[in-house]
Design a protein that fits this description.
The complex is a heterodimer of chains A (about 110) and B (about 120). Chain A is an all-beta fold. Helices cover about 0% and strands about 50% of the residues of chain A. Chain A starts with a strand and ends with a strand. Chain B is mostly beta strands. In chain B, the strands form two sheets. In chain B, strands 2, 4, 5, 8, 9 and 10 form a six-stranded mixed sheet that branches. Chain B is globular. The chains are: A mainly beta (about 110), B mainly beta (about 120). At the A-B interface, strand 5, strand 6 and strand 11 of A face strand 4, strand 5, strand 8 and strand 9 of B.
Chain lengths: ~110, ~120
């Protein structure tokens, strides 16, 4: 079974600074997808960024980028120029072939002014 | 366009009662997923519907849990004889048909179930 590990239960960053959230996973598959989802207090899960395992290039979405290390099975999220609205729970998730998402336990991100 | 909607937003029920939770996926999405989010267990997959195929029920925690999807659209998750450990947020997600985006799941706001 695939497992997703987020080793940082809580992280804190100052506004305008950069923060990196860690995620590792375990799988025997070669074709899969990785995601970062954001969940603010409203409970709505919002897709932040996705990465296809067959792509070597790291995905970027505006201030969000990932460092995907396939051999190391590592998938970290970097948030640049942090904003107060970035405060939320962040979940790393693994998916194989259109199937259900396998989530990590989450990292709570606090953004301080 | 409209996103995934879920009702009710919050539900309080007494132990032993049955509850029904509803999910309206994004129009045209062929895949529908139910997840449960609880403090102790994090986010857990419950059940998966894909088009007209038989659902994957491998995540359902007990036979008190069931789900159906009518007409390939609306889905209902039913929990019979609720227990306190069923208290959680139940999230629904749907996924589009297009091959290049089929793996992206769009979530609803969830239903918070409290069993007293």
């Amino acid at each position: 079974a695939q497992t997703v590990t987020q080793s940082q239960p809580e992280m804190s960053v100052q506004e305008a600074e950069t923060v990196t959230l860690s995620c590792t996973y375990d799988t025997s598959e070669s074709d899969y997808y990785l995601f970062w989802y954001k969940q603010p207090p409203s409970r709505q899960m919002i897709l932040v960024i996705r990465q296809e395992a067959y792509k070597q290039q790291n995905a970027t979405e505006n201030r969000f980028s990932v460092n995907f290390q396939k051999a190391a099975k590592s998938f970290s999220l970097k948030i640049s120029d942090s904003q107060l609205g970035d405060a939320a729970m962040y979940f790393c998730a693994y998916q194989h072939s259109g199937y259900a998402l396998n989530f990590g336990k989450g990292t709570s991100l606090l953004v301080t002014p | 366009g409209a996103g995934v909607s879920q009702s009710p937003s919050n539900k309080v029920t007494e132990k032993g009662k049955d509850v029904e939770l509803r999910c309206d996926p994004i129009s045209g999405h062929t895949a529908l997923y139910w997840y449960r989010q609880s403090l102790g267990q994090g986010l857990e997959f419950l059940i998966y519907f894909q088009g007209n195929s038989a659902p994957d029920k491998s995540g359902l925690p007990s036979d008190r849990f069931s789900a159906e999807r009518t007409g390939g659209s609306v889905s209902t998750l039913t929990i019979q004889r609720t227990q306190q450990e069923d208290s959680a947020v139940y999230l629904c997600a749907s996924s589009p048909r297009l091959a290049e985006v089929r793996n992206e799941q769009y979530f609803g706001p969830g239903t918070r179930l409290t069993v007293t």
